[in-house]
Amino acid sequence: MAPRASVPPSSRRRRRRSPRRQSPQARPRRRGRRALILLGAAGLVVLSRGLWQPPLPPPQLILVLGGDVERERVAAELAQRDGLPVLVSGGSNPEYAHWLFDHQGLDAGRVQLDYRATDTLTNFTSVVDELKRAKVRHVLLVTSSDHMQRAMLVGRVVAGSRGIGLTPVEVPCGERCRPEGWRKVWGDGARAALWVLTGRDLRSWAVARFGPLLEAARGR
């Protein structure tokens, strides 16, 4: 019986693919993207902390974010105490809101109800330009304690881009509190930064562009 031919060890080994070499032009691009990301993140942190804001005048307006009628009640008490006008963004129905503020002794001329907002970002984007035109530079922000972190992050970016400072007024929510995760908080912060840079809400743009495609895919 003839002996089997031995296979050279070198042929048993798989040839290693040599790593792809990046073109000289690709490296500056990557570095540029990383620099932009880092710069954007740093800018978001600075804006969110209000570090660039000049000294603020006394509060000129109370901005209430809708979602809980207790927020409107607290705002009414603040307005009665400090003599400030109230702007409610996305709050309760007009009949109840007018009754509540009237019951607290506020005449209709001091209360503005705005229903254009659909979420925390649009609570601010729908009103900041009007506030800027009215020369409002300092706002008392009223919302629930479990919502305040996200509201202040979004508000400092959006309102801060118009030179408007915010002072938080937390409304205790007790057992109804639902702590918000960091993804939700910083996700809305990123949306706010993109709105400042582009004037467009990324979520609304994605829904408008890809919503029909997703609906068609679900229907198949």
Structural overview:
- Helix content is 50%, strand content 12%.
- It is an alpha/beta fold.
- The model has no long low-confidence stretch (mean pLDDT 82).
- The chain has helices spanning 9-12, 26-49, 69-82, 94-103, 120-125, 128-133, 148-158, 182-198, 202-219, and strands spanning 61-65, 86-89, 111-114, 138-144, 165-171.
- α2 crosses α7.
- The protein has 9 helices and 5 strands.
- The protein has a single domain, classed as Rossmann fold (3-Layer(aba) Sandwich).
For this entry, give a set of tags.
220 residues; 12% strand; Rossmann fold; globular; alpha/beta; 5-stranded parallel beta sheet
Give the beta-strand count: 5
**CATH architectural name:** 3-Layer(aba) Sandwich
Mean pLDDT comes to: 82
Number of helices: 9
* DSSP helix fraction: 40-55%
The radius of gyration over CA amounts to 27 Å
Number of domains: 1
- CATH superfamily name? HUPs
**General form:** globular
Q: In order across it, which strands form the biggest sheet? A: 3-2-1-4-5
**CATH fold name:** Rossmann fold
Q: At the first level of CATH, what is the class?
A: Alpha Beta
Query: What percentage of amino acids are in beta strands?
Result: 5-15%
Order of helices and strands: HHEHEHEHHEHEHH
- Please report the distance between the alpha carbons of the first and last residues: 65 Å
Query: Runs with pLDDT <50, length 5+?
Result: none
Which class best fits the helix and strand makeup? alpha/beta
User: What summary fits the major beta sheet?
Assistant: 5 strands, parallel
